[in-house]
Write a structure and sequence with these properties.
Layout: E1 15-25, E2 28-32, E3 37-42, H1 60-72, E4 78-82, H2 89-95, E5 103-108, H3 115-121, H4 137-152, H5 160-164, H6 171-194, E6 201-202, H7 207-215, E7 219-225, E8 228-232, E9 236-240, E10 249-252, H8 258-271, E11 285-295, E12 298-303, E13 309-310
Helix pairs in contact: 3-4
Amino acid sequence: MIVFHREEYSMGGTKIKTEVVKVVDGDTITVKGKDKDEKIRILALDTEESQPGGDKPMTPWGKKAKEEAQRIFVAGKTVTLEFPGKEAADVCWERYRDNYGRAMAYVYAPDGSDYQKHMIGQGYSPYFVKYGYAEFAANHKAYTNAEVAAQKENKGLWDQISVNGSEMRNYPLLSVWWHLRAQIIDEYRSYKAHNPKKAPMDVNLDYDKIVEKANAGAEAVIFTELAGFSRIGGAHGIIRNSSLHRPFSIFMRDIDEPAGQKIVNLISQRYIAPSKQPDHPRRSYAYIKGLLQIYGGRPELVITSADQIWDGPPK
């Protein structure tokens, strides 16, 4: 395994100033965008829900997190966004989007303070690393220290009984899985930073390039999340990522053949946790090599062997 230190390639991201429109939740606000109002999914945070309809339970502490966000982000006030990359602002607005198409950024309050550090330190959110550690060394260190401080004081969500009346989410268990994923993502980032021309394409950051190569029927190595598996059309199988904004899938022609069964066994044992086993997490991310194609207007990669799936970046 090749591991590099984040300090080697962390330089800070593109920053822009904009105006608050409203607070959606403790980890989501709406701001003035380039041409329209934009929802910002605030990086490094995952506050509890203040309203029903999400994939997490609505909790009293989720409502408190929203109230704290409303205290800090008053409509009409100026805040600073920092994107997790150094590209021009126009590129950042397009490139850094979550699974639902919301822009992703770090947010600094009207007084210039780090909102992420505040919310983590006060126990409104864990340091959320499910989709990777903070890209910049100073942020990562600050958020880690803030979480440790909150845990020492048993503050906020770390004392579920006090803030919610019962345990609504098992954060220690979730954190183990999130950090496993974050370490895998960090390894990929490190490799790409030192081998930009050789690195496999990332589904989230290189989606346009993947679509281009899929239209050409090219072979490629892809770094992607594996989020779900299903049988289709009799013996065919599909592995999907979790993004509605940048959908990508891996196609298997015959999962009933011995080679197909090995693929199914591998992904179920190593990469994708069954929905009925939330307390048995898997790696989630993999490198996959195969021919790209377009199906239903979306890119997919065709595989015929379990040997086309592996854990780490190329040697």
